[in-house]
Amino acid sequence: MLFCPQAPSAVVMIRPHHFFPNEETKQDNHFQTKAQLDKAIVSRKAYQQLTQASEQLTAAGVKVHLFEDQGEQTPDSVFPNNWFSTHADGRVVIYPMYAKNRRKERRSDVIELLKTQYHVQDIIDYSALESQDIYLEGTGAMVLDHIEKTAYVARSKRVHSKALLEFCHQFNFQPVVFDAQDKHGVAIYHTNVLMCIGHDFVIAGFEMIKDQQRQAEIIQRFEQSGKRIIALSEQQINAFCGNALELQGSSGRILALSATAYAALTTAQKTQLAQSVTLMPLDVSAIETAGGSVRCMLAGIHLAKR
């Protein structure tokens, strides 16, 4: 099996027992559903869907570290990629979170598992920046190109330039910051709903980067790095087509994405992606009511095994 720095072969997933769209995040997360929902039904479906998704990934050869969240104070705990990230040099980062109830998602048992089963050299904890109203919501706020050492970031309340520059300085990433908006002029709340970077491809809603020059510069960066460009429409972004993650399975690289996203991709786009990865649609429709999808649910582990 070839090692691909962009495609982790292991992930952390959090199975929620009391899932429901987060009231504290709906102000700037316009991907959250506006419909009235039955809490018990949505919670049960989310539990079942995450369980099934973890089983599908495991069957494909991805190592899934599955944690339980039985608390009722952390409605977004199913999205662990926002509060920590891991890096091939052995470092783990803990991030400052915008919504107060999301800060409760950070778990010492997840960090301890990483220390026990992987080579962890250092823990970089930025969470104290919350006291200064400085936030950087992990690989939601940043979409990282681990090969080119570039951090793509759409400006929002969820990312502060001070924290971003500190991360990029410490990890030797170049920040590429831009504005992305929907047709109503509303800023995209997390970069990872807009863009997915694979080993040799990128799928993104480039049209939502309204500054044409900046849009062209970003596309050119990807082309120069040899990546296949697959442009998504705003409608496809709203169907979570950009919120996918490339993973290393036992039989090659796969692209984990939601069934919603898979249905919204065109036949031509699926054919293009199939040149690089096996598409793995996962039904997470209940979880998508909270405004995030498959990529948000997967905290990739880029650490070396012990």
Separation of the first and last Cα atoms: 18 Å
Q: H/E element string?
A: EHEEEHEHEEHEEEHEHEEHHEHHE
Mean pLDDT: 94
Residue fraction in strands: 15-25%
In short:
The chain is α/β, with parallel strands linked by helices. The chain has one domain (10-300): L-arginine/glycine Amidinotransferase, Chain A.
Structural write-up:
The relative contact order is 0.19. The protein is globular, with a radius of gyration of 18 Å. The chain has helices spanning 39-59, 108-117, 138-141, 161-171, 212-224, 234-238, 259-264, 267-274, 285-288, 294-297, and strands spanning 10-16, 63-69, 84-86, 91-94, 122-125, 142-145, 150-154, 174-178, 195-197, 201-204, 228-231, 245-249, 252-258, 278-282, 299-300. The protein is 28% helix and 23% strand. The protein has one domain: 5-stranded Propeller (L-arginine/glycine Amidinotransferase, Chain A). It is of the alpha/beta class and 306 residues long. The longest helix is centred in the N-terminal third of the chain and has 21 residues, at 39-59. The mean pLDDT is 94. It has a three-stranded mixed beta sheet with strand order 2-1-15. The chain has a three-stranded mixed beta sheet with strand order 3-4-5, with no helix packed on it. This is Amidinotransferase.
